[in-house]
Amino acid sequence: MPHYSYEHTFSANGVKSNQEQAVMECAWGILTNVDISFQWGTSRRVHVHLDEALHQIFPTNPNGDYAFNGYTIHVTGKYELLPSTRKIYLRGWNEGAYDHTIAVAFEVLPKEDVYAVPSAIDNLRRLWERMLYGSRLS
Fold it and tell me: What span, in angstroms and rounded, lies between the C-alpha atoms of 46 and 18?
């Protein structure tokens, strides 16, 4: 499974209305296991979010952002990336007086790896129904 790692340094004295962005190229599939690391000293002054094109992925609340000090947030949610995009964006701003670097790492799983389990469960359900009720059910 592809695993990616990127960093971006946000310039000091930024504002929300003029956000910086880092383009993070990746494979098509299911985005998951996202780690966003904030250095000590950011004092919750660096605000970031992950987007695909113009759509915000994480955090899932549309106007939300992450801002921590010396902390790595781990997001286990899953998001299906568009086949045509093949990139996501780290967007944000730094309200602090000094530049700060944010590190991002994430995995992209093939769709079949994520959807294989529900399909296997569905196959077992059909088999169980056939055993109980005979082959008249599909």
Answer: 13
